[in-house]
Amino acid sequence: MNDAPIRVLLIDDEAAIRRALRTALNELGFQVAEMSRGEDALVAVRNGTYDVVLLDVQMPGIGGMKTLARLHALAPRLPILMLTVQDAEEQKVKALEHGADDYITKPFSIRECAARIRAAVRRAQTPMRREDAPIQIGEIQVLPARRVVTRAGQPIHLTRKEYDILYYLMTHAGRAVTYGKLLSSVWGAEFRNQVDYLRTFIRQLRKKIEDDPSNPRYLLTDAYVGYRFVEQIAVPKSDTQQPAAQNIPADITVPSPS
Length: 258
Description:
Elements: E1 7-11, H1 15-27, E2 31-35, H2 38-47, E3 52-56, H3 63-74, E4 80-85, H4 89-97, E5 102-106, E6 108-109, H5 110-125, E7 135-137, E8 140-143, E9 148-151, E10 154-156, H6 160-171, E11 177-178, H7 179-186, H8 195-209, E12 219-222, E13 226-229, E14 253-254
Parallel strand pairs: 1-2, 1-3, 3-4, 4-5
Antiparallel strand pairs: 6-14, 7-8, 8-9, 9-10, 11-13, 12-13
């Protein structure tokens, strides 16, 4: 990713939420254009260039889901983050399975929002990897050409389906993968509702890749939605190391809609 400001298209019918997000994101160096309706956003994407979209699910007019579908068809590589409310799991799943890159649940902090934006843009701008290229996250490495998995350099024995699950999640690291999407990708579309079946495999896989399977660091659960493999594992800093100063405003919580 270059040093140019990230261009954000914000679509939300709540003026107070748009104002709070625009002000805070501008302070962090983002360039924010805002719209209140999906129809206007479609025109903006046809005529302009953006790096990421923040899209509210609940809006008048064509609404968030139809806007998502049309934006995804118009610009398939443009990452779209859905702004949802709590207890909207069905909306989150539907959004992810219809092309959303991620979701952010209101109320959320501006730090969380900025981190999700940067991660989505980074993923979108990363060159396509070869299917047989090694993948490494933390101590976990996958060698697709040999279907070999190691942890801290030591081989891990995985069953065929455990490997397929791990490979799919690691090639989509950082993204929430819905239960249905993971089941369909590994077993086939006829298995997409077999969530308990999937959970059994996830428990076994965590026993093999996690230090503490009950408190996983790599393979995380997105409650009621699916699973997410982390993009990176933070390396602990010594007591003498101080984090670099950052131009981050006092954290702001973006509220739920009124």
